[in-house]
Amino acid sequence: MPLYEHVYLARQDASAQQVEELTAHLRSVIEGLGGSVAKTEYWGVKSLSYRLRKNRKAHFTLMNVDAPPAAINEIERLERLNEDVLRYLTIRVEEHEQGPSAMMRRAERDRDREERRGERGERGERGDRGERGERGERGERGERPRERERRPREADDLEAATEE
């Protein structure tokens, strides 16, 4: 049977539990039509590049599917009918990617960065700047020199009124 990668986007208003139930329903439809789902990944709620049906965010879910084309047609038909599904995309692939998908690897990388950043404190260490020490009182700034004198505001208003 052909191999597919299927991604769908669900409305941000739907809970994560509703998205999991929809994924379980799609899995049962695929298995009922003689296919199998090798892997499902819930990528979480992500911001969209542009608004889709008045939504700025969506739940992303990936499914690696090994099924006949009739099963793919059926799940796409069900997703068109489901108002919680904003978009879907099915791509035929030669083989499924082993291990976590690129989105999950990115999430792990970002999590690792946050952990490393957390060890250095809120703003991080600034090793190249050295200690700044006590600055002490800086004193009065004094008057700044002006390039030209500014006219009073009332004169500006009179001038604008006469031009009209």
3D structure, described in words:
This protein is an alpha+beta fold. The protein has one domain: Alpha-Beta Plaits, CATH 3.30.70.60. The protein is 36% helix and 29% strand. It is built from four helices and four strands. The chain has a four-stranded antiparallel beta sheet. The radius of gyration is 29 Å and the shape is elongated. The N and C termini lie far apart (79 Å).
Summary of the model, kept short:
With 164 residues, this protein is α+β, with helices and mostly antiparallel strands. The protein has helices at residues 16-32, 69-81, 102-119, 153-163; strands at residues 3-11, 36-52, 55-66, 85-93. It has one domain (3-117): 2-Layer Sandwich (Alpha-Beta Plaits), CATH 3.30.70.60.
Labels describing this entry:
164 residues; alpha+beta; Alpha-Beta Plaits; 4 helices
